[in-house]
């Protein structure tokens, strides 16, 4: 194993250990409760929510509880745009980190970079990010994968913003439903998620078919 690969693996292990320790020490539920208590003070709530979105990647917390909190406090009308911008913003730091790491040298990160670029060469940058966001994959692995793939920031932001729409809608709807004690929104959200996954499959089907067809040896 090359020295660069060992160094990168060591860094990944240390980072993962720090994330686990931080997650055990700092409870996301406790923080969400504290932020929710600021709902009567819009400026303080907005500032706390911004900080929460920015630090979330450091602890590898899921985005869904934050989106649900936004829906609980702001409702659907204001919650959806706020949570959508927040969901896009919170995925940018891991994307930028991975893009920088993929360009910094060889080793494991270089292999991830090569694999990602091959995938993007088949799907296209925006389409690939959009399909990944629409599929039921965790947010942060998609962010790191896009960064290692060398996707442009513009393509990443556009694909993430559009791909997060159905997920944010369902999560904000769940938060708003908890406030109104309604279960109708939750059942409607299931259809949105199934439709989202179907769209992701359709987006990848065409490029995948053309790639497989072009890879076949021609028959004379």
What is this structure's SSE topology?
Blueprint: H1 3-25, H2 28-36, H3 42-59, H4 64-103, H5 108-123, H6 125-134, H7 139-148, H8 153-180, H9 184-215
Helix pairs in contact: 3-4, 4-5, 4-7, 4-8, 5-6, 5-7, 6-8, 6-9, 8-9
Give an account of the 3D structure.
The protein has 220 residues and is mainly alpha-helical. The protein is built from nine helices and no strands.
Order of helical and strand elements: HHHHHHHHH
What is the CA-CA span between the terminal residues?
A: 44 Å
**What is the global morphology?**
globular
User: Roughly what percent helix?
Assistant: over 70%
Q: How much of the residues is beta strand, in percent? A: under 5%
Number of helices: 9
Arithmetic mean of pLDDT: 77
Radius of gyration: 19 Å
| Category by helix and strand content | mainly alpha
What attributes characterize this protein structure?
mainly alpha, 9 helices, 220 residues
Kindly summarize this structure in a few lines:
The protein has 220 residues and is mainly α.
């Amino acid at each position: 194993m090359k020295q660069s690969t060992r160094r990168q693996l060591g860094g990944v292990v240390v980072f993962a250990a720090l994330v686990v320790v931080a997650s055990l020490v700092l409870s996301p539920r406790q923080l969400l409760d504290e932020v929710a208590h600021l709902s009567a003070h819009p400026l303080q709530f907005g500032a706390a929510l911004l900080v929460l979105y920015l630090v979330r990647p450091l602890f590898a917390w899921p985005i869904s509880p934050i989106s649900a909190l936004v829906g609980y406090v702001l409702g659907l009308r204001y919650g959806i745009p706020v949570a959508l911008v927040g969901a896009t913003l919170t995925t940018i730091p891991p994307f930028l980190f991975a893009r920088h790491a993929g360009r910094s040298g060889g080793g494991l990160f270089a292999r991830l970079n090569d694999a990602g670029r091959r995938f993007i060469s088949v799907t296209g940058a925006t389409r690939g990010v959009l399909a990944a966001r629409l599929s039921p994959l965790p947010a942060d692995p998609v962010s790191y994968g896009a960064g290692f793939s060398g996707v442009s920031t513009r393509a990443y932001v556009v694909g993430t913003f559009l791909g997060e729409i159905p997920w944010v809608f369902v999560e904000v709807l769940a938060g708003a439903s908890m406030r109104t004690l309604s279960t109708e929104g939750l059942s409607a959200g299931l259809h949105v998620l199934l439709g989202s996954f179907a769209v992701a499959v359709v987006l990848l089907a065409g490029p995948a078919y053309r790639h497989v067809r072009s890879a076949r040896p021609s028959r004379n």
